[in-house]
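During the first year of the project, the team set up a workflow for recording each protein of interest as an amino acid sequence followed immediately by a discrete structure-token representation. This format lets reviewers and collaborators read both layers of information side by side without switching files. As required by the reporting guidelines, we include two representative entries from the current panel. The first entry is reproduced here exactly as it appears in our internal archive.
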Amino acid sequence: MSVAFRVKISAPFAADGEGRRRERQEPGGGCRLRGRGPSFPLQLLRQPMGPRVQCAVPSSGTPDGYDSRVTTSLAKGRQILEFIAVTDGPVTVRELARGTGLPKSTVHRLATELQGWGALEAEPDGYRLGLRLFELGGVALRQHRLEDIARPYMEELFDATQRLTQLGILLGTDVMYLGRVGRQGHQRVASPVAGRIPATCTALGKSLLAYNRAAVAEAIRAGLVRRTRHSITDAHVLGTQLEQVRKDGFAIEREEVRLGLACVASPIMINKRAVAALSLTGPTESFDSRHAASAVRGVARRLSRALAPI
């Protein structure tokens, strides 16, 4: 069992040589000077030729070197993230401090750290949730067997439409496909996939981007990708399309990823967030987008209700 000791080291054995008393805990029986300086085994610091060392008793209530301050920082960071999550629009440091009850200096420090990790994104008018959280959310969904739960719904959708049915999530500014149900010859095929395509080129991606302003902003900053001559590369046109997606509940794409193919997709919503999406794909000349949209939207809504308890 690792134990934390509190150690006081007297001058002249100070890290900066200025004779100031230093104090810091080091788990595992070692001691470190506060600030810079190496970690020293405790038995070396007990030698009489060294500085005077006072080792306190092991800290109570902190087994295995656990530092309760880390939990406090995590709790404060969680407060910040959860407050932004339920707020419409960017949130300033002042608003975060007022809403969470934390000091402004603490909010500023933690928000800066969260931004560096990608959990928050800074905008001129405040902070938004960052793409890193959406990536982790996608991983969490996969760990909760999203594909397994969605499989019967995908098979039902394929049987009703005879169109390639796919399930995907947003990963950064790309769509990552988790599974598909289609036909190979006369045999129905259900298989997992792991491909990634720029979200702005696909109906599945647009149905997710419509509910993720941070991902849209990142895609525009990086430059909209042109996969075919029909791909949308104008930010204003993309914004208009995404607004229509929010009104209709589905997205339509024609030959933006591959010539000769059209696609329609609808988001899977949990707590007003698009966590994944279902899509139908077929040849452009025979693809009835409105009929496909009605089918995929209905199944996506039922799947949303099935996933809500997770």
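The second entry, processed by the same pipeline in the following quarter, appears below.
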Amino acid sequence: MHHSSDSQLVALVALADASEDFALDVTLTLPGGVICGNLIGYSTWLRKQAALLQPSGHSRYIDYLNKLADLVQENQKNSSVDPLNDPRYENDPTVPLCIHLADAFYVHPTVTIPANEDLLWRGRISEVSGWSTGVFKPQQTD
């Protein structure tokens, strides 16, 4: 585990990665700003990426994403290390390095970006300087 990464966030991401149906709204503080979204596992993120690309007709890349999602899911099922209770986890190659969000948006004082579009986002856990459960949204002004 990167020592600069928050161990609680790493454990939460590991739980998301271990479950296809895990979802939790989070807000992340990064060097470039604040991003909010629904924390999902890596295999779920890969499948959502493949689904978004379906209309584009890039079948080779879509097949690759789906196969990778299957492999990631299988590796998670076969992992015998518990990220919450096992000190061996710090040396385990399955320790997540990236965090994955669905329905992501950047927070700005007056607007959220994108305003009305779904966005899949992936970033390095080690770049997160702070986080919370739930999402922030600017108040609508009339």
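For the second entry, the following points were noted during internal review. The two ends are 46 Å apart (CA to CA). The chain has three helices and six strands. Both points are flagged for discussion at the upcoming steering committee meeting.
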